[in-house]
Design brief:
This protein is mainly beta. It has 11 helices and 39 strands. A 10-stranded mixed sheet has the order 1-2-3-4-5-6-14-21-20-17, with no helix packed on it. Strands 9, 10, 11, 12, 15, 16, 18, 19, 23 and 24 form a 10-stranded antiparallel sheet that branches. Strands 30-29-28-27-26-25-31 form a 7-stranded parallel sheet.
Amino acid sequence: MIKKIPLIALALSTMVGCISQNSEKTYQIQSPNGENTIQFELTDLAPQYSVKHGNTEVIVPSKLGFVFKDNDTLQHNFEVVSQKESSYDNTWKQVWGEKHSIRNHYNELVVHLQEKSEKKRKLNIEFRAFDDGIAFRYVFPEQGIKDSIFIMDELTTFNLKEDGKAWWIPAYDEQRYENLFTASPVSTLDTVHTPLTIESKSGLALSFHEANLTDFASTTLAHTTGTTLKTDLVPWSDGIKVRTTKSFRTPWRTLQIAKKPTDLITSYLVLNLNEPNKIEDTSWIETFKYIGIWWGMHIGKYTFWEGDKQGATTVHAKEYINEANKLGIDHLLIEGWNKGWTPSWYENAMHQFSFTKEADNFNLKEVTDYAADHGVKIVGYHETGSNLKNYLQQIDSAFALYKKRGITTVKIGHVGSKLNMKEWHHGQFGVNYFRYVLKKAAEYGLEIYYHEPIKDTGERRTYPNMMSREGARGQEYNAWSDGNPTSYTTILPFTRLLAGPMDYTAGILDVNIEQGYPGRRVHSTAAKQLALTVTVFSPLQMLADLPENYMNQPAFKFLQDVPTDWEDTKVLNGEIGQYITTVRKDINSDDWFLGSITNEDARSLSINLDFLDKNVSYEAQIYKDADGTDIDHNPTKIDIQKKKVSASDSLTLELGSGGGTAIRFKKI
């Protein structure tokens, strides 16, 4: 039982998870281990909160509340009607993921507020303190309001005690989340997307995000003054932030807190704040690796549209199915198979695709039958071009066609700066659209992954057919632009990937792209591409290179072996934008897999192998940058070694500039 104690006695208390109160206006709750503390108070009858980690102030008193239409504010003249505290401790299992068993352990304080004014509206604020951070959300209960509720602004602020280095991408950009990261002080930010990762001057690592984003606008964070950030809800095209009736419940506002950045990666706070799995039979949901005609299209070998270089033809599909067989890969993505592809399809003009009619030179039944006969499953593709009016008119017939043809996974794209050329991908309209399609796919027994998506806020826990998504600059930028800098993939695990899996499409062994556009290349070594399949988690792992670049390539063995579902994940070392070493244990064997990558700097990393099982031996199958290899010198050269190791051993990883190492530890 959590007890209330006088605030003056808090410093003398050694109780774990206590809530204290010095008046009707101030309450505190601590995390189970006592490190993270949330304080709620009414100051001049206005609600505020603050956060401490140990003795370190993280968030100093910060505002809470809303502005409704006609400048009707819900932020002051409150009284605390009641409060309720509780504890929760449970371990649940993911259907798939980077860690199979996850502990959900927190202490909760719910404060019931009511206006003292004539309207006497009620507002509840739910606070949860975890050992790895804090979260809170608003609940506006049903209270006899018959008119529509229009939220014009959310007043939640995060008044950081200290400045720090923030790793950010801009909000409200036509490229959505597909921007390179900038590192700069919090005090210099404009308006940015979440997750927002900060290395605080106090030495703590922080990440701001949200969880269980449902029927609400997603939040961006706007810098106001000093080191204060304010929730900035993404608006509808008419400026209204959220439309609702009778009542509303916001997503959880989350702050993950860690001693060092690597600990943020193994925090599952966001997942824990989502509802449990709602799909009773999950036997049809699977993780897998796949190849595709996709890379050939991006490097200009093929086109998405009909013509002499058309990629999606029956002939090419059968060739790729045969190559998938030779490579031991049992899934194939085919993009461009349907009618509507033209050279100008992406030009933000409400382009019309058919999702049931085949392109010239492609026969869906013939291809799927051939694939089934050869033990390969086709991954379907729907590019909406952000014309959702067109897509939603066809979604049932399109999903039914895939189901009929034995296709159980669909990639869904949303190229375009605005949905329906009008609404942001990450406003309430987009949030509801993406959740609707997710539920619709579940009705048809389809698993999906999104490109040009809404950001991940942990909904894969509730609907585990939500497999992966893009939501950042992927590998494709290396095919036709200046590309992603070498440091980019050493930033992703500490930023974008804190939200959830990413379809980065790693595994390019021909990093010089010999058959591609002149002057374009992948800014890494081939060994680093192997390592990315471990450091960048996705349950659907594309092996993105042309199939011929894998044939007779000894290093392809690692891509064959690396799993897509994991028992456990540990981060051995890392610094944002510098390097990272991640190990994951296969859920179906005793094997561990390691990925270690670096930025533009070559480096030598010593790692202990104490994550391995004790008192047994392993064969370390090592794929590393060959001697003298780096991003500018023989970047495709991979040295393969084998070594007997145990948990008491250590290894030194030699990473060339832009390089990496991938290791399979096989128990012997």
